[in-house]
Design a protein that fits this description.
It is a single chain. This protein is an alpha/beta fold and about 400 residues long. A 5-stranded mixed beta sheet has the order 1-2-15-13-14. The protein has helices at about 1-15, 50-60, 80-90, 110-120, 140-150, 165-180, 195-210, 225-230, 250-255, 270-280, 320-325, 325-330, 345-355, 380-390, and strands at about 40, 45, 75-80, 100-105, 135, 155-160, 185-190, 210-215, 240-245, 260-265, 285-290, 295-300, 310-315, 335-340, 370-375. The chain is globular and about 70 Å long.
Length: about 400
């Protein structure tokens, strides 16, 4: 009898221990950032004050990490370098990795807040990659060792002398991970001051769908990018998508890229328009096939009607906007749009007006929604209200100024 009770107790302990462990829900780290999110009817702001805080707030929002099915597969760790972060987010985030991006401090250390959040996230480890927990891109070796020793995480490191080389390293690693290279390759201009801004919407698509990425220069193609394209083998070579007009990536480069596949541009007259074009863009057709079947390609969100989510932030806050692409990877997926601190640019206004819902029954109206990225120093309250107005299905009359700023009602 005693032996049976002993066996029963052991069985109960085994069941309880197999239920998994958690470091707690969002907010269990050192920054209770979710308490700071503020809302309107059709927007919610994730108000990171620094790139590090923004990244933590995003991981808290997307990954409860209370069970295996809502935990991260891995974590991307990068310096506060826009180009490195932009390149990493293009190629690492998507499945089977499933990784949000987090930052080092400005002086290249892992802060206590980031370390605590990494501990809370408790990655599952990428099954296809020997259970790697962290992908550290150009992270100093001492900080990599800190993550290994303090958290016990398995870390894969990528080091590259320049972003062009990094894109090729990640392309080869992804090819090994998936036993294939996607034929669609998005390209941005490395040496144009607005190259990333024109391409951040397409970067969001890559975080969502995991297609290829490579850098070009405004007037030339790096050798590493040529090697990336030569690895593709569709019927027409690669499908190449340039983010930006001829002033960003020249027609000379576009023509030369034609040797490697079909070339298309995703662009508008400015960075705001380029990203609204990206939100509505869809390239759909045959990738390759046989007489009895074919394999499709489909690149772009193709959103031209109501019922969608958007990720909206300041064009001058690239370090905050890059990790926000994880909102298009998990949850209610949606494209990235850019605004100014104190205004909604005309291109964004027109696009959101085009996809504006219309009221039907109270329970049947299709709705739009948006994440606002950054605190009020990057996107003002007035801009958030303007976005809310554009997303609303109702034709609300706009007040000259909000009631909180109106003259006292005691005065006539």
């Amino acid at each position: 009898m005693i032996r049976l009770r002993y066996i029963f107790a052991l069985a109960i302990l085994a069941v309880l221990s197999s239920c998994g462990k958690t470091e707690g829900p969002p907010g269990a780290g050192s920054l209770p950032l979710q308490n700071e999110a503020n809302f309107t009817a059709y927007t919610v702001r994730l108000p990171g004050r620094t790139p590090e805080e923004q990244a933590i707030l995003l991981t808290q929002t997307v990954y409860p990490a209370t069970r295996e099915d809502n935990a991260v597969g891995a974590i991307i760790l990068v310096p506060q370098d826009e180009i490195i972060a932009f390149t990493a987010m293009q190629r690492i985030t998507h499945m089977p990795v499933n990784a949000p991006l987090m930052y080092l401090t400005k002086d290249n250390h892992v802060s206590e807040a980031t370390l605590r959040e990494m501990k809370r996230l408790k990655p599952d480890g990428v099954l296809n990659d020997r259970r790697v927990d962290v992908y550290a891109v150009n992270v100093p070796e001492a900080e990599v060792n800190k993550v290994r020793e303090i958290l016990g995480y398995k870390v894969r490191t990528f080091y590259a002398k320049n972003p062009v080389q990094l894109a090729e390293i990640l392309d080869r690693w992804q090819g090994a991970l998936k036993s294939d290279h996607p034929d669609e390759v998005i390209m941005s201009a490395l040496d144009h001051p607005d190259g990333m801004k024109h391409g951040i919407g397409a970067m969001g698509w890559n975080a969502h769908m995991g297609r290829g990425f490579a850098w070009v220069y405004r007037d030339s193609i790096p050798e590493a990018t040529k090697r990336i394209l030569e690895r593709r083998s569709g019927d027409h070579g690669s499908y190449i998508y340039l983010t930006g007009g001829p002033d960003v990536i020249s027609n000379k480069v576009a023509k030369e890229l034609g040797r490697y596949g079909l070339v298309r541009r995703i662009f508008g007259e400015n960075v705001y328009a380029s990203n609204t074009v990206n939100a509505g863009y869809k390239d759909y057709g045959r990738n390759y096939g046989w007489w009895w079947n074919w394999e499709q390609r489909a690149l772009g969100w193709g959103i031209a009607q109501a019922g969608h989510n958007f990720i909206i932030g300041n064009a001058d806050n690239m370090l905050g906007m890059i990790p926000a692409a994880v909102l298009g990877h998990m949850g209610k997926h949606g494209p990235i749009l850019l605004v100014a601190q104190d205004s909604v640019p005309q291109a964004v206004n027109k696009y959101l007006t085009m996809v504006k819902p219309f009221p039907t029954g109270p329970q049947e109206t299709i709705l739009n929604y948006a994440w606002i990225i950054g605190d009020t120093s990057t996107v003002s309250e007035a801009t958030q209200r303007e976005v809310d107005f554009l997303l609303s299905p109702f034709k609300n009359p706009k007040a000259d100024k909000p009631l909180s700023e109106a003259d006292t009602l005691q005065q006539k």
